[in-house]
């Protein structure tokens, strides 16, 4: 048997386990040792991972070893804990199919038997369509049981309304709640160990909510469970708190890995519910997950089929998924004995006695999904290979779904060179060919020290060819919710854009510039590093505001204007002027070339 077992108590194994998850094509937080170790703390079982190989396909199963005391007899089994972990593909084809699945699952079953366990029950991930891609329904019936576990809903984060800062397709009730919540509540987000204080608030609100809905004892997690998740998951763990004044009224835990974020647990009080706080938290988490480069926020399911929690989640307009779990029976005699015994926990369910309760939904058919949710990467080509391109490539590297395929240039001497790891593929003439190859997103890699016309011309050419221009915003830029962004805008690190600003197409907001409230910035404008626009400044198209320049509030700067580095503009500037100095005075008329 070509099998590796990693133990959740052994520091070396923990590091290997985490590393394997990191290297998986689609990792998720539920597979990580930190997640399972938190359950171990609550007495749910002993965490371990089993890695199995069949040809080029390797899979990791994250499991808890449980001890069950039934009628005075002790049994042990392995299961995936609460959440959606279970089977993680590490390598091999994306759709391994039933043959490979049978080989892997039978090896796992052999290990289960050799370890003295009655069964092993991995879950299948709802967002990865594992039921279909592994063909689990075709596993040998003699030693497997497949149970449909219910439905979950997930939001595709590309369905984002950049203007209203909310998900597209939200039902009216959710939009109303969001508006109300935003007008009355404040929001606080904390991650990892910085969340430990907010976790205390979370725990109190969560406990109240669980008591209110008379939740199963299972949902009353020990304090250490939360603290361990925060400490060991680090920035993959976040607490969102909604506050009315200084009173916390709702709180939720979100978990995130590379591609998927998850709504983990949430609680609120009456005041929070009155103000629509839960909606605010989910929408804020969408923004958080987007910033991290996730493609999906998984909201999960309800406590019971079609309950109010499910209705709440569905009203965000996401897609519906279903998932199953597979029980591998290693010791059929004891399995048969356990099925149907009173008080035996999941998964020893008697299918004939199953009801439609959350812990016993076994009669629903396994639904296959029309499309799996692992959306392909967005392939992007850079047009122009100047210093500006380096910065954009760096920004895009924070977004794992963005893949820069290379750059095109006019300067032939640069062909074949690389910048920031991206190859300069050749002449701009290649763009139609790249488009035909399915690369239909682009960024402009040309900055400029005064003349923005070349950028505007490239912009027009690219759009005419049919490319989509991407917006690149550094994760450490602060852009207020109400800012209206044009197409192809790039916003560098340290930039602050305050509310009610309107930014035109192809604008560059360079490192650490500040754009105060109510400014209006025309198309193709470049605000150079560290420049400061006070409130309600207007800047006409194609203008350049030099490094470190300051513009007094309410000043109107015309089109094609150049403001020199460090200048202080205190009065309006007509079109086509170069102004310099403090206070800025006309230096000359902009050259018409
Ligand atoms: C304003 C600017 C365009 C003028 O450039 P230029 O036409 O080449 O002008 P010169 O450098 O020949 O300077 C002409 C005169 O203006 C002065 N001058 C130029 N820029 C000035 C500035 N920012 N503030 C004060 N005086 C300035 C020069 O000292 C020179 O004065 P002099 O004739 O008394 O010697 C340029 O200096 C500038 O500031 N560009 C913006 C650069 C920038 O923002 N880069 C960021 C890229 S991300």
Per-chain topology:
Elements: E1 3-7, H1 11-23, H2 33-41, E2 46-54, E3 57-70, E4 73-79, E5 87-91, H3 97-114, E6 119-121, H4 130-133, E7 144-156, E8 160-161, E9 166-167, H5 172-184, E10 186-191, H6 196-212, H7 223-233, E11 237-244, E12 247-256, E13 260-268, H8 270-274, H9 277-291, E14 296-300, H10 308-314, E15 319-329, H11 332-338, E16 378-383, H12 387-396, E17 402-409, E18 418-419, E19 422-427, H13 431-436, E20 441-444, H14 453-465, E21 468-469, E22 472-473, E23 478-479, E24 484-485, E25 490-491, E26 496-497, E27 502-503, E28 508-509, E29 514-515, E30 520-521, E31 526-527, E32 532-533, E33 538-539, E34 544-545, E35 550-551, E36 556-557, E37 562-563, E38 568-569, E39 577-580, E40 585-589
Parallel strand pairs: 4-6, 13-14, 16-17, 16-20, 17-19, 20-21, 22-25, 23-26, 24-27, 25-28, 26-29, 27-30, 28-31, 29-32, 30-33, 31-34, 32-35, 33-36, 34-37, 35-38, 37-39
Antiparallel strand pairs: 1-2, 2-3, 3-4, 3-5, 6-15, 7-14, 7-15, 8-9, 10-11, 11-12, 12-13, 18-19, 39-40
Helix pairs in contact: 2-7, 5-9
The structure holds coenzyme A.
